[in-house]
Design a protein that fits this description.
By secondary structure, the protein is an all-alpha fold. The protein contains six helices and two strands.
Length: 172
C-alpha cells in the first residue's frame, strides 16, 4: 500500500471516530450541530475518480447513519457533497488561477484560508441543508431547517478549520 492510501484510511477512521465519540455530542441550543466528519470528504485527494469519491462518501455517510440512527440521511448528503465537489474544485482552481491537475490536496495550507473557507463553507452548507431538509421532511419547518443549516454550517466550518490547523501539516 502506498503512503497516501494509508494516510487516507487513517484520516477516514479518525474523522469517523471523532464524530461518533466527541462531535455528535457537541451541539448549541438545539440549532447548531457539529458534523465534523464532512471535513474528511472535503479534503479527499482531488486526483481520485468521481466514482471512488462517491463510494467513499457513501461509506462514510452510511457509517454515520448507523450511529446516528438516521435512515440514509447522512449517506444522501455525503453522496451529494461528493457529486458537487469536483465542480467546486474547478471553481477553486479558476479562482486561484491554477490548473485543477496542479492541486495536490485540498487543505487550508495548500490553498489558502479564504479559498478553503469559501470551498468548505459552500460544501458544508449544501450538506447540512440536505441533512436538515430530509430530517424535517416538510416545508412547514422551513425556518427551523434554515436556522439549523446556517448555525450548524458555521459550527462545523469552525471545527473543520481547527482540525486543519491542529492535525494537518504543511507540505509546501
Amino acid at each position: 500500500m502506498n503512503k497516501n492510501l494509508i494516510n487516507s484510511i487513517v484520516a477516514f477512521i479518525g474523522y469517523f471516530l471523532f464524530h461518533v465519540f466527541v462531535a455528535r455530542k457537541m451541539y448549541l441550543g438545539g440549532v447548531a450541530f457539529n458534523y465534523v466528519y464532512v471535513g474528511y470528504l472535503l479534503t479527499l485527494n482531488p486526483s481520485i475518480t468521481k466514482s471512488q469519491s462517491l463510494l467513499v462518501a457513501f461509506a462514510m455517510g452510511l457509517l454515520i447513519d448507523w450511529f446516528e440512527y438516521s435512515p440514509g440521511i447522512h449517506a444522501s448528503a455525503c453522496v451529494f457533497l461528493a457529486f458537487v465537489r469536483p465542480y467546486l474544485i474547478g471553481l477553486l482552481a479558476a479562482r486561484t488561477r491554477v490548473d485543477v491537475e496542479e492541486i495536490r490536496e485540498i487543505s487550508i495550507r495548500e490553498v489558502d484560508f479564504i479559498n478553503f473557507t469559501l470551498y468548505a463553507g459552500m460544501l458544508i452548507l449544501f450538506h447540512h441543508f440536505i441533512v436538515f431538509s430530509l430530517e424535517a421532511w416538510t416545508s412547514k419547518l422551513l425556518w427551523l431547517t434554515l436556522q439549523k443549516t446556517f448555525f450548524s454550517t458555521i459550527f462545523t466550518l469552525i471545527s473543520v478549520i481547527l482540525v486543519q490547523y491542529l492535525f494537518f501539516s504543511s507540505k509546501r
